[in-house]
Amino acid sequence: MNRASILVMKIFRRIVLRVSVWYRTTSFLSGLKSYGKEISVGERVTLWNNNTTVGDRTHIYHGVTLWGPGKIHIGNNCEIGINTVIHSSKDVVIGDNCAIAADCYIIDSNHGIKKGELIREQASIVKGPVIIGNDVWIGAGVKVLSGVHIGDGAIIGAQSLVNVDIPENAIAVGVPAKIIRYRSEA
């Protein structure tokens, strides 16, 4: 290939990339209940929820799945990491300025477990909404279960299982997550 052909191919590739980003973002936004400004959306993002709202300047990375019949609210200036799954049967709320790392699983319900009925045919059980406060950092691979409230400024260590409330500015790690200390001012 000569220089002119290579230059044409580079220009064509940039045009295709910009069009695909525009199409991906427009398609995602059209499925939301409401959304803010400057939202970016990675590849293979799946939206199986028509009750989702997303705030300003939020980035949803590749492979994220938002699903379920309930409400999902993602605040302003958030990052939802690669391959994260958020499922809502009733209500999942993520505050402003949150960083949710890759491969997290956030769910506000669980299976019914009555004896004598097939588990897969039982109605979901919702202990309560999942509420993630403002300025929360959730490490890679964290699981957040039904009815949990994570307070403002909290940090959840990678691979933790959060099945109880975590207070403001707490640092929690483990399975199940336990508070190891609190964030300090210095």
Determine and state the CATH class of the largest domain: Mainly Beta
Number of domains: 2
Note the quaternary state here: single chain
Mean pLDDT: 93
Number of strands: 20
Task: Give me the CATH superfamily of the largest domain.
Answer: Hexapeptide repeat proteins
CATH topology label of the largest domain: UDP N-Acetylglucosamine Acyltransferase, domain 1
Major sheet details: 8 strands, mixed
Strand order of the largest sheet: 2-5-8-11-14-17-19-20
Order of helices and strands: HEEEEEEEEEEEEEEEEEEEE
Verbal overview:
This protein has 186 residues and is α/β, with parallel strands linked by helices. 15% of the residues lie in helices and 30% in strands. Strands 2-5-8-11-14-17-19-20 form an eight-stranded mixed beta sheet. A six-stranded parallel beta sheet has the order 1-4-7-10-13-16, with no helix packed on it. The chain has a six-stranded parallel beta sheet with strand order 3-6-9-12-15-18, with no helix packed on it. The N and C termini lie far apart (58 Å). The mean pLDDT is 93.
List keywords for this structure.
186 residues; alpha/beta; UDP N-Acetylglucosamine Acyltransferase, domain 1; 8-stranded mixed beta sheet; 6-stranded parallel beta sheet; 15% helix; globular
What secondary-structure arrangement, pairings included, does this model have?
Elements lengths: L2 H28 L3 E2 L4 E2 L4 E3 L3 E3 L4 E2 L4 E3 L3 E4 L4 E2 L4 E3 L3 E4 L4 E2 L4 E3 L22 E3 L4 E2 L4 E2 L4 E2 L4 E2 L4 E2 L7 E4 L4 E5 L4
Parallel strand pairs: 1-4, 2-5, 3-6, 4-7, 5-8, 6-9, 7-10, 8-11, 9-12, 10-13, 11-14, 12-15, 13-16, 14-17, 15-18, 17-19
Antiparallel strand pairs: 19-20
